[in-house]
Amino acid sequence: MEEMGMTDLQFKSWIKQIIRGLKDAKEEPDKENTDKKITELLKDLEEDLQG
């Protein structure tokens, strides 16, 4: 079975979600919460890569 990739629009949407997550992390008032949000984002990205 052949796996289909993302369309350009889907890829742009995925990138926007990453940017939004990073901006949210940046706006956290302390390092602990920033680190927590970045860790969650990294986990999500790793899961996306695994399929």
What does this structure look like?
- Helix 1 (8-26) runs antiparallel to helix 2 (31-50).
- The chain has helices at 8-26, 31-50.
- With 51 residues, the protein is mainly α.
- It contains 2 helices and no strands.
Topology:
Blueprint: H1 8-26, H2 31-50
Helix pairs in contact: 1-2
Average residue pLDDT: 89
Low-confidence stretches: none
Helix-strand category:
mainly alpha
Q: Can you tell me the overall shape?
A: elongated
What is the terminal separation in angstroms?
A: 15 Å
Strand content: under 5%
Helix fraction, binned, reads: over 70%
Tally of DSSP β-strands: 0
Number of helices: 2
**Order of helix and strand elements from N to C terminus:** HH
Main β sheet profile? none
Rg result: 14 Å
Quick overview:
By secondary structure, the chain is mostly helical. The chain contains 2 helices and no strands. The two termini are 15 Å apart.
